[in-house]
Structures are given as structure tokens and as C-alpha cells.
Amino acid sequence: MRSIAAALTAVLCLAAVGSVRAQVSGDVVRIGVINDMSGLYSDLGGEGSVEAARLAIEDFGPTVLGKKVELMSADHQNKPDIASGIVRRWIDENGVDLIADGGNSATALAIQAITREKKRIFVISGPGSSDLTGKQCSPYGFHFTYSTYAEASAVTKAMLKKGADTWFFLTADYAFGHALERDASSFITTAGSKVVGSVRHPLGASDLSSFLLQAQNSKAKVIALANAGGDTVNSLKQASEFGIGKSADQNIVALLMLITDVHSLGLEAAQGIIYATSFSWTQNEATRTFGHRFMARRHGQAPTMIQAGVYSGVMHYLKAVQAAGTDDAGAVAAAMRKLPVNDFMTQNAQIREDGQVMRSMYLVQAKSPSESREPWDYEKVIATISPDEAWRPLAEGGCPFVTKAQ
After folding, report:
1. 167-210 pLDDT, tens per residue?
2. What is the pTM of this model?
3. What are phi and psi of 2, to 5 degrees?
4. What's the average model confidence in pLDDT over 257-270?
5. Residue 1 banded pLDDT, cuts 50, 70, 90
6. CA dist 110 → 95, 171, 213, 381 (Å)
């Protein structure tokens, strides 16, 4: 009888082990980072986002639920069709469980549609369109780092307090630029100020002079740049050459700016520019520790908020897989919403039903050269924006599955 009981116990133990193994599809958790690795936005995310994901995996541990964590990466060249092809292949042929970063808003909207259909987690860091938690939301999509709503809210409100009552937009002609102009315009008109015009430029245009002159001739008190990365840097450099935004009657502001943009401009040119971010590497001891670790791996380049957001999203995903006991996307998505987000850039942030990470945002100002104490010491925080103020109210987003659930 004892031998029979022992045999039965062994069988049950083997069955239990098999059950645990079955909780991770393919016996491996695969993470794919996709963004612009070689073009206009490569400094903002690019290979740095891959390194940030690698650091998160290293810090979590090489395994989750006893299974290896593998990292893949790809360059979508800022093209939605290429992004779609890569993500479909990753899911169908490679069994990728998590898509991270996304690059720009147009590619992210394409990826969001696929991950919604295929039931895969999408941690969004580089793309900013607020539509990703609005009309194009997904039960499996999580907006981790910033949004056009949050950026527009912080910058426009700061300028409106200074009496900026007329605005003209210089906008990148694709999903991100359109969303940024739309969201900023809503704050401007609600405050009783006026948008007197806008002009749209192609993504990656080298000569923006004609667009800038149109903006200058509008006589608007504020020329708002609704673009990003190399487009923002080129806009500011060329505006300076024409003397645009230098007078007391007309200012030029960047609705989205990152520390790499400040670096490209140089502090002499960038000093005094105010912009919003969810992460500044010199902010406190924890952010400095991560910043120096990252710079040691990235030839001295400081992390952007997008790269920090990739670390935050990958780490939170792995914690959620551990808590859920499976890599099943539905269970992991539920665990991601249940667990608070905690890391060097985030303290007890909750993830809302629509996938928005409710973190604080920060209004920062580019330092003067004399204020900078070390390489990449470019930013000083001048205001903290609470999550409730920073992010669009849930009821205003129009996320379909949230609307159905209410």
C-alpha cells in the first residue's frame, strides 16, 4: 500500500509541475522592443530603450516563474506597415509576450490594433497620442510615460498664466502632431484664449523656414511646436537663425522636449526653455543611480523619459507575470492594473482602467551653462503636477471597453 501511495504522490507531483510549466507559453517569456533605431527619433528611444529593457530584466532576475526571459528588438523605421509586419511575425512565429516602447504614435496605433487582436501586452513609452487610452485603447495596452494630453496641459497652462492669449501651431503632419495640437488647442480655447492658425510640416523635414515664417507672420504671442525629436531641434535652431521667438511680443515653445533635444541644442541655446517630463535623471538619489548606470552602458548618454519608461514598463510587466503565475495576457493585464507601479521613477502609481499609468509629471526648465555641474546636468524641476491634474479624466477619453464597463 505504501508503494502504491508513494507512486500516486509522485504522479500528482509530476502533474503539478506540468501544470506550473504550462502557465508560461513556450517555456519562455519573450519581450520585444520596437521603435526607431536609426532615424529621427533614435536618440529618444532607439537602442537606449533596448538597454533600459535589458537593465530591467537583469534587475528582476534572469527568470520569471522559473522560465527564462528573452529580449528581442527591431527597427520599424517610423513606418506603420513595417511595424505591423514585425509585430505579427513576432507574435505568430516567435511567441512574443510583451511588445515594449512602440516608437511614434502612428506605429503605436498600428501595433495597438494587432496586440488587441492577438491578446498581447503592449507597454507604450515612446508614442504620445492620447488616443492610445482613448478611442484606440486596448485591454492589453498600457501608456507608461507621457501623453499629448499631459504634455499639452503642463506647457499651455504655464504659458497661459503668463498672458499668452494668441497661439499658432507648427505641427508634425502625422498622428502624434495632430493629437498634440488638438489637445493643446482644447486647453487654450477653454481658457478663453485663441488659436489664430497652424501649419503642418512633413515628418523629418530638413528645411522648416517657410513654415516658421508663416508662424512669425501670424503675430501670435506664442508659436507652439507640436513636433518631437529632430523636428523640434531643427525648428528651434532655424527659428533662432531667423530671430523668431526672441522678441517680447512673440515666444516659441516646445510642447514636447526631451533631454537629448537639449543636448543637441546645447545649453547656451536651450537655457530657459520650459517643458514637461515624467522623469529627470538628476531629480533624486534613485534617479541619479539609474542615470549613471545607464550612462555607463550608453557611452555617457543620459536616459530620456522614454527610455526610463521602458524600464518601468518591463519591470512592472515581469512583476505582474510573477503575481499572476502565468504569462496569459488577460491575467497579466489584470495583475498590472492591480499592482502599484514602483521603481526609481515611480512611487505607488496606479494603472487606470483605460491603461493610463497615473504618475506625476514635472515642469522643468533647461539650466544655464553656469548652473550645470556635470555632463548631462541640464534640467531643474520647477513644478510637480499631480496625477489627477496631469492626465485626462477617465470619463473624457472615450475608451470603448471602459465605456461599456461603466
Report:
1. 999 999 999 999 999 999 999 999 999 999 999 999 999 999 99
2. 0.91
3. -60, -40
4. 95
5. very low
6. 19, 21, 34, 34
Cα torsion angle, 200, 206, 207, 213, sign:
positive
Res 403: pLDDT: 67
C-alpha cell recorded at residue 57: 530584466
Confidence of residue 248 (pLDDT cuts 50, 70, 90): confident
For the record, the C-alpha cell of 168 comes out as 499658432
Q: How confident is the model at residue 9 (pLDDT cuts 50, 70, 90)?
A: very low
